[in-house]
Amino acid sequence: MKIPLRRIGNSLGVILPKATLEAWGVGEGDALELGERGLLPPRRGGFRHEELDELRLKMALAIIRQFTPAQVRAQILANLHRWDRQGMWVSAFDEWREIANGDDDGELFAAMLGRNEKAVRLRQSAPYAGLLSPKEVRDINEEAAG
Fold it and tell me: Structure pTM?
């Protein structure tokens, strides 16, 4: 899309389409960033809830692609054991322990990859951390950040 330069007072400026500003989540009085790549929306201080769950989902999918259910279960149980000894326990860990101690791969995959409320909630306390390399985690985070 071409945006013409216009005279605004004693300066030159651009008028961006309202739809673009709405998509960027900015409005009157907000600031945009001007960089080598052009005029961009401001960087947010984090992800929206939906974006954060998509990031968690991508991490879980990467794990499922690389590791067997038995390996995932072993990591879950190891992390839960360590976190319990350190006094870092949340109620979702009880549910994860039950899933990891079971033998139903479908239940494990549903918790890691599901889109229902329970899966989203469980992913917020995912105990399969440590399976992906730091580089893989960084790559997924960078991709999500754009």
Answer: 0.67
